[in-house]
């Protein structure tokens, strides 16, 4: 199986409740390694660029407001099939649909305040990682 990297964000609803360590414990238990991690306050420009693909959606403004409402933790995760492995352990976007034991079932508050983001493809993972990390800040 292929070792991949994926990009993760622990969102403001989770940092606000001091859940960074709890989320990281689920990530590590799933066999993923946190090989890069930074706590930042996202600017509106960063959030708008990151979510550009959603800019025509009715919730875009709300999404940017939320992602800039408090600190986030941006991460690079590595492991076997990391993109899918992380999406599996995150659970469904809407916590009401998420499986038991997933991060969103355990911690998410709503479809908007859903605690974590994970890349949806290896190609997007590379783009998203580049937006927040230089290679010097990643150690696998
Ligand atoms: P994420 O994986 O970060 O990518 C896009 C985000 O949009 C998604 O997680 C949700 O948090 C958010 N989102 C999706 N649907 C809605 C919605 N109906 N209302 C508010 N936010 C949403």
From TrEMBL:
Cleaved signal peptide residues: none
EC number per UniProt: 2.7.4.6
GO-annotated cellular components: cytoplasm
Catalytic residues, chain numbering: 117
One GO MF term attached to the UniProt entry: metal ion binding
Entry superkingdom: Bacteria
SMART domains per record: NDK (SM00562)
PROSITE patterns xref list: NDPK, NDPK_LIKE
Amino acids binding ATP: 11, 59, 87, 93, 104, 114
Cellular location(s): Cytoplasm
BP-aspect Gene Ontology terms: CTP biosynthetic process; GTP biosynthetic process; UTP biosynthetic process
Cofactors named for this entry: Mg(2+)
Keyword tags: ATP-binding, Cytoplasm, Kinase, Magnesium, Metal-binding, Nucleotide metabolism, Nucleotide-binding, Phosphoprotein, Transferase
Reactions mediated catalytically: a 2'-deoxyribonucleoside 5'-diphosphate + ATP = a 2'-deoxyribonucleoside 5'-triphosphate + ADP; a ribonucleoside 5'-diphosphate + ATP = a ribonucleoside 5'-triphosphate + ADP
Matching InterPro entries: NDK-like_dom, NDK-like_dom_sf, Nucleoside_diP_kinase, Nucleoside_diP_kinase_AS
Pfam families on file: NDK
Enzyme class: transferase
Gene3D superfamilies linked: Nucleoside diphosphate kinase-like domain (3.30.70.141)
Keyword Transferase part of the UniProt annotation: yes
PANTHER family listed in its UniProt record: NUCLEOSIDE DIPHOSPHATE KINASE (PTHR46161), NUCLEOSIDE DIPHOSPHATE KINASE DDB_G0292928-RELATED (PTHR46161:SF3)
Oligomeric and partner information: Homotetramer.
Entry function: Major role in the synthesis of nucleoside triphosphates other than ATP. The ATP gamma phosphate is transferred to the NDP beta phosphate via a ping-pong mechanism, using a phosphorylated active-site intermediate.
Family of the protein in this entry: Belongs to the NDK family.
Protein name: Nucleoside diphosphate kinase
Organism: Henriciella algicola
